[in-house]
Structure prediction request, 721 residues.
Amino acid sequence: MSFEEDYDVVVVGAGHAGCEAALACARLGLETIIFTVSVNSIALMPCNPNIGGSSKGHLVREVDALGGEMGKVIDRTFIQSKMLNRSKGPAVHSLRAQADKAEYSKTMRMVLENQEHLTIKQAEVSELILNQNNEIKGVKIFTGGTFNAKAVILCTGTYLRARCLCGEAITYTGPNGLQAANHLTKSLEKAGIELVRFKTGTPARMDGRTVDYSKMTEQLGDDVIVPFSFTTDPDTIQKDQIKCYLTYTNENTHKIIRNNLDRSPLYAGVIEGTGPRYCPSIEDKVVRFADKEKHQIFIEPEGLSTNEVYIGGMSSSLPEDVQLEMYRTVPGLENCKIVRNAYAIEYDCINPKQLYSTLEFKNIKNLFAAGQFNGSSGYEEAAAQGIVAGINAAMAVLDREKIIIDRSQGYIGVLIDDLVTKENREPYRMMTSRAEYRLLLRQDNADLRLSYIGYEVGLVSKERYNKVVLKQKLIDNEIERLKNTYVGSSKKVSEFLISNGSSELKSGSSLYELISRPELDYYIIEEIDDSRESLPADVMEQVNINIKYSGYIEKQIKQVEAFKKLENKKIPVDIDYNNINGLRNEARQKLISYNPVSIGQASRISGVSPADISVLLVFLKSIGR
Amino acid sequence: EEKGIDEFKNKIKDMFINGLVNYNDEVIITNERHVRLIDDSINSINEIINGINIGISEDFISIDMVNAYKNLGLIIGESIEDDIVDEIFSKFCMGK
Prediction:
């Protein structure tokens, strides 16, 4: 006899997407249940032991600004922290933290366990329940139970019909030997969902006692640690940090790999799925970049309670014996012992063009999807989708307006728009080059950009939101003061300017104008700024950036205005592309297939040219839009 | 009305014979909208050159490059603006 329970929201999967989604729904007061094949593996980091990095750090900050959890958990469980790209412009400053994997997972799990309105259940979801109108009604689990729900969020990651390949050895498991989820795929296909097969890989883990660090270069964390979450007081997180190490492959390594390519499932045609272009295995790198004499390898500890180290940059699906041979050619790893073999994993996921920008399925009402199930890769990409899907599932249940973050508002917007609008033939990885408005979408201003959404939705408290409003006010006021504070050509000012390599003043100038000079900035100007009062460090940082880059910021704001105009030109839902003359056939097919909601989105579909857009604009005009 | 066409033609003939019409290697832009877009592109390109000379980060220079590219694209139909339809059709009559 099976049983039945009622919930508001069901979340399938408790990885980084599932955790954010479930917490968002529960925190908005909805009775939420989250399913996982392994409670011990909640928020597991199955690959690299770090959070953040270039563009990914931006996503973590944005998730935090919306009221999400990842930033808070990494602030509590990091073992090394570094701000990357400090020497370059603020648009690409990125925070990256090494995590104690076990602590991260445990900490996030405790957050879920103690969350009101949230139930955790270890079970495999095997079936979707739909009504005759193709609306989601709940799920069934393998052991027979039925869970009715008003909304369901699929966050199955890399577990659907997963199999792991280590050379010729194939095991039908999810990552890290965990149970795969083999039943749901059939139900998804029956519901009309189109699935594809992707692959990704992970490197070996070594026994740290067998690694000779003296042959490698030390990689240290920052002296002053910067937190991820806007809610973390920096003073509370300064601590001792572990070291990482840098070493390189060499021609011997590459020779072994080349000699054994026929034993690599990727090259022997055994792996079906398409792999990530920007996260290639070492086999991929050696073949694709044949001229490169050496590849960077980062040795990263996996946690404080283990000796295991992660071999970053050397993921592989080569057989066990080849792995040992190739790893041992790397300086420092000559006597290494492998604790866990490298392997490739294949899994079912969807083509995300089946989703709206709200992450709801176009053809199945109240069914949402987030994470690697959508064809992305990375913990941060998963968390970003998770919180948006969670918020929107909650909005659907509460009959409120869903949120859409667009390309000009955040990296989350770029991520989601890329997933649902572009052709994704391989796992999608976020990079700064994907964002058009990088100068505006900095990691240092994520709170100013997105907190209001978190507040309106209900995930960010009024108290926290007021702090953000105050911060913006302090910034605006200070910039105003600098615009209206003038200095003349006094002796003090002249000496100051000369000593800083700047030209003297012929007449009076505002402090704002002086700060704009390339050789000066807000901090240096303090010497001649008599009316300055002390301000928080993050406020000063924003004042400095806004003044120094005001010219380019203005230009980018104008670009955003043009972008918004096309985004706001909506395409009628009932449009029939077959009846529009002047479209090229390829464009017509693509428009029918993707069903864009706006001219802006249509223009980003590959195969739709500017000429086709002009045709659409004329058409819209002719029907009075 | 067709008045003065013959005089007009003769005047052009005179100018041509007297070497007052340069037709060799000039690109003639007949469209006021194109002139404006080209001027904007030149401004952006000058900013790019300036930016490179003073050594600012590529992220800033790329903003000017996008602007230059977009403005040139609006001439040859590679870029779109929301009001491009209004722009073009306001300049000539479509008829019914």
